[in-house]
Design a protein that fits this description.
By secondary structure, the protein is an alpha+beta fold. Helix content is 35%, strand content 26%. It has helices spanning 4-13, 62-67, 78-88, 95-106, 120-130, and strands spanning 21-25, 28-38, 41-48, 69-71, 112-114, 116-117, 134-137. α3 runs antiparallel to α4. The chain is elongated.
Length: 141
């Protein structure tokens, strides 16, 4: 496991783009890079064994769930969910209506696993929780 100072150094290295960090976590080599996502927005991207594969977005391999983040979003807009929650509090609502409004409030998309993280701190915190062995390696790129 990395020490507190080593984690601080990893976060410092990921504070600016184009400085990849290599880690060996639970028999997988991950490369972490700060990359431009859209416009001037930068994200921290995780490559597992040098790859980001499209089939991993479903989260089926176990190692993907260790290194990538889960993303789910609501199916209805916040305004519509608030209106449905307000309707649920009304008296005299039929059982079918109550069920429908309950689904509007809680309905979410299927989970999707993303290789990008909003910050290095969030990624490091996640790695500390999910991985049993972590060591820093020299990145090849």
């Amino acid at each position: 496991m990395l020490t507190k100072e080593q984690w601080a150094q990893v976060e410092a290295d990921l504070s600016h783009p184009y400085c990849p960090v290599g880690l060996r976590c639970d028999d997988h080599e991950i490369t972490i890079k700060v990359e431009r996502e859209k416009g001037l927005k930068f994200v921290v991207t995780v490559y597992v064994d040098g790859w980001i594969k499209g089939e991993w977005f479903k989260g089926e391999p176990e190692h993907v769930r260790k290194f990538w983040r889960e993303h789910r979003s609501f199916l209805w807009k916040p305004k519509q969910r608030a209106e449905a929650a307000k309707r649920l509090k009304q008296r005299g609502l039929s059982k079918d209506s109550r069920e429908w409004y309950g689904k509007v409030v809680e309905a979410k998309t299927e989970p999707m696993w993303l290789p990008s993280w909003p910050s290095a701190k969030a990624l490091c915190r996640h790695l500390r929780k999910t991985c049993t062995t972590i060591e820093r390696i020299q990145s090849e790129t």
